[in-house]
Design a protein that fits this description.
The structure holds 2 protein chains of 2 kinds. By secondary structure, chain A is an all-alpha fold. Chain A is built from 8 helices and no strands. By secondary structure, chain B is an all-alpha fold. In chain B, helix 1 packs antiparallel against helix 6, helix 2 runs parallel beside helix 6 and helix 4 packs antiparallel against helix 5. Classes of the chains: A mainly alpha, B mainly alpha.
Amino acid sequence: MSLGEITRVSLAKDLRLEWRSKDAINSMLFFALLVVVIFSFSFDPTAEESRHIAGGIVWVAFLFAAVVALNQTWARELRNQVLDAYRVSPAPANALFISKAVGNFIFVAVLEALMAPLFMVFYNLRSIGPAYELVVVAVLATWALVANGTFFAAMSIRTRSREVMLPLILFPISIPALLAMVSATTAILTGEGAYRFWLVLLVVYDVVFTTVCLLLFETVLHAE
Amino acid sequence: MRRTFVILALLTLGLLSYALYEGLVAAPTEQTMGEVQRIFYYHVPSAVTAFTLFLINFAASIIYLARRSPTADALAVSTAEVGVVFCTVVLVTGPLWARPVWGIWWTWDARLTSTLLLWLIYISYLILRRYSTSGQTPVIAAVLAVFGFLDVPFVYVANRLFRTQHPQPVYFGGPGSGADPRMTHALLMNMAAFFCFAALVVWLRFRLERARQDFDETEALEALLQPDARSPR
């Protein structure tokens, strides 16, 4: 089987499992909802203020929620030694990585699509800049979070207290990406400032780190 | 080996004392900032040393990933630990200097933020090493080191643009063309002394790590060679 085919099969399996159990999406949704409500209480912003802080709140909420899903990525494969079976199989390691990363991307994208209207309602948001550009930002930003997140989750399953480890190694590396996505979102919402630079930065970040992930994933998978 | 260490340690001590004298006494007092500027002779050498150590850590991690040599891993862990110490010195002396000169402890300037982030990344590197199960530690640590190092340019670029819209204090980079030659001399002496000191500590830590690796290896070998009494056959 080719890389594409294995990726497709593995992704289909993950999506089917998620569709039936809805483990990741339910816990992410509830978690993100809690973050929205708590932030809303703690800041109690007016419409004008919220336009300036919403970018930060949205992405911090999504980042925290994504960690919930990312932590579950590999846990499923540890049961019944599925990961060990994958290691001895001739299937390319990157097929596994791509399928997991794309799977996580879909879960987080669904979460964002469901949460975005809630944000609009709770924070009385109305974009001044071109709102459709927010979709581009969301796609690039989500990939930046899940590509590294999926990779680091594969690393953190090798540690004690693995659930705690993932944010500890993921957050420092993600800070420039987070800065870029927050700045781009805020620039679009307020209609001031250049957001194109941040989009370019996100694209470069995505390309660089996805390449490194693909180069090193086999090493991490076989690290024994 | 022990004698070499003692000799080198004494030489380093001598160099550090001389550099201290140069920095605190011999170098002229700066015109606008006054005596507080002398912190410069510790701040900048620490920063250069920390960055050099992180650079060595990155190189050692790459070599480890390519060749799986335990020596490279020992070098990586030693440089990371000592680098974090020097980076901490930078982050402590920075605000101490900034407060009287800029009037603020901290600003989210590109250089400050990059240093802080570098510090955070290497702390997470050390935590990862501490928490990972033995045997896999070197590989995943080396991988994280590669990610961490690649992250730094992004932080720098992101912060530069993010912050330059606001007026910010001018960063006093090294002695410019007009600086007193005695200042440059004191700086270079301190830089040399800090490098020697760092090299000495890294060497010590490196030998400790090598000894630990040998011990682990011997232990594993003995466990293999001895007939296992616990498992009934």
